[in-house]
Amino acid sequence: MPPRTEQQFGEIRELRKTDIMQAGLELFGQFSIESTSIAMIAEKARISKGLIYNYFESKESLIVAIVTDGLQKFTDVIPQIENTALSKPQLINYLEVTFTVLENNISYWKLYFSILLQPSVMKLVESQLMETLMPIIQLMTGYYKNLGYSNPMAHAMFLGATLDGISMNYMINPKEFPLQEIKNILIQKLL
Prior knowledge:
Elements lengths: L5 H25 L7 H8 L3 H7 L3 H19 L10 H17 L1 H11 L2 H28 L5 H21 L6 H12 L1
Helix pairs in contact: 1-2, 1-4, 1-6, 2-3, 4-7, 5-9, 7-8
């Protein structure tokens, strides 16, 4: 068997990193951050405890990587907008994409939100979260400003909070929650 190439080593490294992050996501979602140990993550990822430290310097850096990866997965599928405000079709498209992302990988987002809702995690990732979400809020604010609303930021934040609530309810009971109908109601009522 010939020796591995640099590219093969890079691919193996990325696979291991992904395995560690997935194991951490599942365990942090199932237990709390505090009660999940690096040893538990290593066992679930089927690697040695020491090897995790080749990828992440601490449990906290693993948490930040997991949350950052989730934010990146979300923003990767959202269409990029060049203006300072969303048009109505762009906002509807944003909502469609948001609902599709949620629906297509509910188990991932259920775990993701469960770790994100832990106060110790929020302290670690608050700046990354705001860095990702504020441009979206600003685009929504621009939409409401263009419609002449007196407090467009409040309306944008209300829409964001409504999306959070819908997402949480869907994650709790996906089989009974009428996601598509609620999406249609949301578009009719808020837009």
